[in-house]
């Protein structure tokens, strides 16, 4: 099992439910994290993001002022903040395909459905730390590569037809300071 050193990671929890923030904070502290910042809505989340520069953002979908999707879009604006590449884990009580696709299309890195488990949260964090996806920049999208499936039997020149020219920005060393052990 791969383990990461959580005490070197800074987290931002954005959720309007204080009980959910407490559960997440407790889990993160249990994993070994010491820097966990919190915000009760999207506006406060953006301000906390700007001031604390977290390594990972965990946000709820449905919140007042602006929701998790709007927060993600604001964070993902290149040049608008310190780290538009930050991994964003979206929490929601809704797992419909259209919601998962909407989150992906806004630039969410991972998706986690409530009620959460410690193992599911750990796995999502492990994924964003150990296997960071390259970022794609086109005229209409900036965020982690949405294409996860690699078909080894595909023999064509382009993976998908009709794909616009995209700049691929590899995610290297976002977490160099995080100790990973097996």
Automatic annotation (TrEMBL):
Sites of 4-aspartylphosphate modification: 60
PROSITE patterns, sorted: RESPONSE_REGULATORY
Biological process per Gene Ontology, one example term: phosphorelay signal transduction system
InterPro entries recorded: CheY-like_superfamily, Sig_transdc_resp-reg_receiver, ST_Response_Regulator
SMART domains: REC (SM00448)
Keywords for the protein's UniProt record, in alphabetical order: Phosphoprotein
Protein name, entry field: Chemotaxis protein CheY
Organism of provenance: Rhodoplanes serenus
């Amino acid at each position: 099992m791969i383990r990461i050193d959580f005490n070197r990671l800074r987290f931002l929890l954005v959720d309007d439910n204080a009980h959910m923030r407490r559960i997440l904070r407790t889990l993160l502290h249990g994993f070994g994290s010491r820097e966990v910042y919190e915000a009760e809505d999207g506006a406060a989340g953006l301000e906390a993001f700007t001031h604390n520069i977290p390594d990972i953002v965990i946000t709820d979908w449905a919140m007042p002022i602006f929701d998790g999707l709007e927060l993600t879009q604001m964070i993902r604006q290149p040049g608008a903040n310190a780290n538009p590449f930050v991994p964003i884990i979206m929490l929601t009580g809704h797992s419909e395909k259209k919601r998962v696709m909407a989150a992906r299309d806004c630039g969410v890195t991972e998706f986690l459905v409530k009620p959460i488990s410690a193992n599911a949260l750990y796995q999502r964090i492990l994924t964003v730390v150990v296997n960071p996806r390259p970022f794609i920049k086109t005229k209409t999208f900036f965020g982690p590569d949405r294409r996860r499936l690699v078909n080894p039997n595909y023999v064509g020149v382009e993976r998908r037809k009709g794909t616009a020219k995209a700049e691929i920005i590899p995610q290297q060393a976002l977490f160099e300071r995080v100790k990973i052990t097996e």
